[in-house]
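Data availability excerpt. The first of two example chains:
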Amino acid sequence: MHVDLRLKLFRVIFVVLHVVAFIALMAMMGIVVCNIIGRIFFKSPVMGTLEIAGFAGIIVVAVAIGLAQREHRNIFVDIVVARFPARIRIIIDSFTYLLSLGAVGFLFWAVAESALESLIQEEITLTLGIKTFPFRFIWAAGLLILCGFLLQHLIQNLHKGLKK
């Protein structure tokens, strides 16, 4: 029952993340379309289009990177490795997961530090004066989710290797 409840909670969280990413993507598309219409028909662009589209893009990518890893929808280069024995592939995959985990973990640390610095200094954007720290924390959260799935897949891969 405990595992079932955890799975339901994760499903709800991922549905919410999908909805948030969808809203951000629609906002990005809407602001860009309004900007184009404003430039063409009214000779006046929408102020802050780049900032709004950029922040919406951060939200979309932060959600997408973790979910892509969760579903194994990332690109694996399998041309050379496909001919190796299963045990060698598991070793190579495990090394790749470990290397990716280290790189993304380091990136998370740097982004989280940058987000804290942005919060402390009350950094804002130049055009609209939007505080940047929430979007930096969203990016850090997306990287943390990616780290979690990389770790999960590393453990699963090692477990699979121990069985063989």
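And the second chain:
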Amino acid sequence: MKIGFYGAAQQVTGSCYLLEENGLRILVDCGLYQERDFLSRNWEPFPFSPQTIDYLLLSHVHIDHGGLIPKLVREGFRGNILATLPSQDMLPIVLLDSARIHEEDAAYKKKRHKKEGRRGPHPEIPLYTVEDAEKSLDQVESIPYNSKTELNRNVSVCFHDAGHILGSAMLEIKWNTNGSERTILFSGDMGQNDKPLIKDPTMFERADYVVMETTYGDRVHEDPADVEEMLCRFINETIEAGGNILIPTFAIERAQELLYHLSLLSRQDRIPYLMMFLDSPMAVNITDVFRRNLSVMDKETKELFRDGKSPFQFPGLRLVRAVEESKAINTIKGSCIVMAGSGMCTGGRIKHHLVKNISRPESTLLFVGYQAKGTLGRLLIEGKNPVRILGKNHDVRARIEQIHGFSAHADKLGLMRWVTHLKNEPRRIFLTHGEREGAFSFAEEIKRTKNWKTHVPEYMEEVDLG
């Protein structure tokens, strides 16, 4: 078995790994790059031939894990895309939304650049189209959790719950070599324990090789008990100041988790009644998918629905799909909460709300997820001022806050708890999906704690697993 690291290597986005075993070629994830320094990779030819790939195993539907699937199919991939049933349910929403954004962004840039008499760094054509996305969906096949699936007579895969988002999976791949069985685990994006809505990450007792994420490999989240209190405080202080609360929101899991906490705060009268907008057609559609997949959610969430206390339906909440309604939000007098995509402020409706609020000192911009290097969200957290939004510079006067505990990723302690649950010493642990500093820091933590062999692969590095 050989593994190639073609994304998320010493960076967070662009997850993509290629396994090769005796003629079988398996791609694990095919994600979009979102860091500014690596955006050009989205436009470059794949570093492997898509026509030669037999299977694509999708860990989950976040765009940095599956966002290049339409491009892969357009360039010749004809194999099966294997994913969990909830992921299959959400993938059309995610890919079609992504394709529409690429089409709209290309049209907007072309119009703006023509007006300004210049060309941008990337082509003024969409990375892929709605038609490309629709074609790729024909190749998706759902796989039940905890069910062994034979890829050929020598290689099998089993999808296990990763506790990251609805439908997320850890991949356990087994193969035979010289009469003995070997196992490689892909953590995918690993969630935190005791999060609302979804189950805890699966734990394992043995593996020969591990490929694991390190998004928060050098950081510890706030105590989960403090998350709700912080959210409550930021909301109440902003209302008192007379501003709006803007929350850049990832459409999958983060939006639904926010609704969960806001519904509790509202029902407990810890925040006053105010209008709350989930301004994202994609997030609204994903919320419908959550309702259809109660069977894979945790016990507490099932009980809320049984008691008629749906976290997705409470006084003051408005689910916004139409563009006209989105625009009308900015005409409201008084405070409101606006949750809009994208979560890193790289596109979507949040940018239009930022234009109206970023220079208002009474408003709060609250980040509740990871912000990759080079994204507008990261620049705002780092204090850049002014910032460029929709082609114009804006002074930053709004309050900028962040709550790490909302993250759908395990922190350093959670990652260590997961990997040290293994009873055997793996032959090698590959640390990916993290910025260089975080990955190497976590490698040192494993060495200090267990003295196990780790490796932080470079982009396009290939390793023979034997």
